[in-house]
Write a structure and sequence with these properties.
binds nicotinamide-adenine-dinucleotide
């Protein structure tokens, strides 16, 4: 076969893979995470549950964590292990990481747990104080605790990936002209912006130990969180643009599959109305 024909066949095969639905795509691509182990938080439903399925299908041993007991059913489905508790609870996080680490390496941590409700500067005082603890706890403190607990283990093994799940409010879609704020999400957005501090600092601190740390800054994805936020009757034209949890999970898998020389300290934008694909790294984020 001539070189140009071989190149054409390769390109067409790659395009065919992208065209396949995520589930079919990863079953074709095989068990690329065989022998690896992941902790995925917020995995009782939505993007976390999709991550558990996609990573398990790729051969990864999966530990799923959530406040909701339904995470047990997800663990059963992926032949993994479930821990029920609050990611903002330091003792709980210690238990999850100690017990998972006792059975082997922890190669991947996906800090996906998060929650949102309306908050803003005109809320009454008691609500403001309570909302801070809960929203910063779920969207930031949980990622901090899990990252700090796994980092020494990953550093010792000379390998690892930490993925923090952020939002497109931190990295808006190109040319949308959106302001980075929202107007009714001050605490949610503050928690997600704070993830930048962890991601960028950990990427530098852990790079020499072979540990990569990245943020997924994603937009509208069809989950209970988004539907709960928008109410019963979301605009069908907007719904048609939403990403699927499986599509997002597939991109996270592709990020891990970049391997030890892949990007680190990157804010990876995924946006509704755009193809759900892993973009090229921001300048200076490659290793
Ligand atoms: N769906 C979207 O459009 C969208 C957009 C941008 C970012 N995100 C982010 O994606 C992540 C996943 O969201 P989703 O859309 O799948 O939402 P979801 O509500 O369907 O799932 C979130 C899960 O996290 C769990 N959780 C929340 N706080 C927790 C805590 N303190 N301890 C343990 N478990 C906790 C919930 O019980 C739930 O199962 C979140 O971090 C969210 O902020 C979602």
């Amino acid at each position: 076969m001539s070189t140009s024909l071989a190149l054409l066949v390769l390109t067409l095969s790659y395009l065919l893979l992208l065209w396949l639905p995520p589930a079919a795509r990863h079953s074709v691509m095989g068990n690329e995470l065989e022998g690896k182990s992941a902790i995925i938080t917020g995995a009782a439903q939505g993007i976390g549950a999709a991550l558990a399925r996609v990573f398990s299908n790729a051969g990864c041993a999966v530990t799923v964590v959530d406040r909701q007991a339904e995470v047990g059913a997800v663990a059963e489905e992926v032949s993994g292990r479930a821990f029920v508790g609050d990611v903002a609870d330091a003792d709980f996080v210690r238990t999850v990481v100690d017990e998972t680490g006792a059975t082997g390496t922890i190669d991947i941590l996906i800090n996906n747990a998060g929650e949102v409700w309306q908050t803003g500067p005109l809320d009454e005082w008691d609500k403001a104080v309570d909302d801070y603890d809960r929203l910063i706890g779920s969207n930031f403190r949980g990622a901090y605790l899990f990252g700090r607990a796994v980092a020494p283990l990953m550093a010792a093994s000379g390998d690892g990936n930490i993925v923090n799940v952020s939002t497109d409010h931190v990295k808006p879609a190109p040319k949308t002209g959106w302001h980075h704020g929202h107007g009714a999400m001050d605490l949610y957005n503050a928690g997600k912006w704070a993830l930048n501090g962890l991601t960028f600092d950990w990427a530098k601190a852990l790079g020499p130990q072979g540990v990569r740390v990245n943020n997924i800054c994603m937009g509208a994805t069809d989950t209970a969180m988004l539907r709960g936020w928008l109410g019963d009757d979301p605009d069908p034209a907007y719904v048609a643009e939403w990403m699927s949890p499986e599509g997002v999970a597939q991109v996270v898998l592709e990020l891990i599959n970049e391997g030890p020389n892949g990007r680190t300290g990157d804010n990876i934008g995924l946006w509704a109305g755009h193809p759900t694909v892993l973009p090229t790294p921001e300048e200076g984020r490659t290793r």
